[in-house]
Amino acid sequence: MSLRFFLLAILLFASFATPVYSQARPSDPQAVAILTQSLGAAGVVLNPVEGLTATGTITYFWAGQPVQVAATLRAHGPDQFRIDASVPGGMRSVSVGRDAGGRLDADGKFTEIPLHNRMSLGGTAFPYLPIAAVLKDPEMTLSYVGLVEDGLRQLHQIRAIKSFSSEQDPNGVLAKLTQTDFFVDAQTNLIVKVSDITHPIETLTEDYPRETEFEGYSTKSAIAVPGLVRQKISGQTVWELRLSDVSFNTPLSDADFRLRPGSP
């Protein structure tokens, strides 16, 4: 039996069973305090953000060649995220919703994003949506990993892991898939990087480190917004997103993040 099939079998069983959640380990007070300070530094304590819509440009690095095109970003809560980009030949859309995810290429090819690549909190272009969520989630455990060096900067590394019932996750597979690390600049208290693990579509047995970096913060509507978001997989830059216009708490629904073959 493949690990992917095993994972799906666990979730199927859990949908019929009555879950008895194990008590999450108490979060490290230092980790909670640092992320709370970061929310304050970003302005989202006084100005709560549930979602956003933004426009700008995205540069894809395909076969080592940069391709820069116009893009629209939508995000809502900790687990809904979508980018639509006007690539040569049409529109390229990548979306992750509450119960599904996928990529629709300009040629109409649809590729599903499997569950094992949708369980962590990395990959979003606005890190304070997942941070606000994990601080409120009693099933999340936050731990302080330590102070790490990044060039001339010192960063606080905070790790978030979700707890599951023993029936749902007897071997700890699901918990491992949720692991997400947040890196907070010790001087500015702003998030500069989020790291997690992604995998090939067909299997979760191969791990690829993924890092999403945030630079060039500026204030928009009293909220700190990164001007540049860069995503790397196994150390290689996959895309860079430059945001030029951002609107907070725009009307968004689950339907905005449902991507299917032939959908707009």
Structure description:
The chain has one domain. Helices cover 16% and strands 43% of the residues. It is built from four helices and 13 strands. It has helices at residues 3-16, 29-42, 128-136, 173-178; strands spanning 51-62, 65-76, 80-85, 92-96, 101-104, 110-112, 140-150, 153-162, 180-185, 191-198, 208-220, 223-233, 236-248. It has a 13-stranded antiparallel beta sheet. Helix 2 (29-42) packs across helix 3. Residues 1-23 have low confidence and may be disordered.
Based on the model shown, name its key terms.
264 residues; alpha+beta; 13-stranded antiparallel beta sheet; 4 helices; disordered N terminus
Number-wise, the strands total 13
Residues in helices, as a percent range = 10-25%
- Percentage beta strand: 35-45%
Largest sheet: 13 strands, antiparallel
Averaged pLDDT, please? 89
Q: How many helices?
A: 4
How many domains, in number, for the residues? 1
Give the SSE string.
HHEEEEEEHEEHEEEEE
Produce the secondary structure layout.
Blueprint: H1 3-16, H2 29-42, E1 51-62, E2 65-76, E3 80-85, E4 92-96, E5 101-104, E6 110-112, H3 128-136, E7 140-150, E8 153-162, H4 173-178, E9 180-185, E10 191-198, E11 208-220, E12 223-233, E13 236-248
Short account of what is shown:
The protein has 264 residues and is an alpha+beta fold. The chain has helices at residues 3-16, 29-42, 128-136, 173-178; strands spanning 51-62, 65-76, 80-85, 92-96, 101-104, 110-112, 140-150, 153-162, 180-185, 191-198, 208-220, 223-233, 236-248.
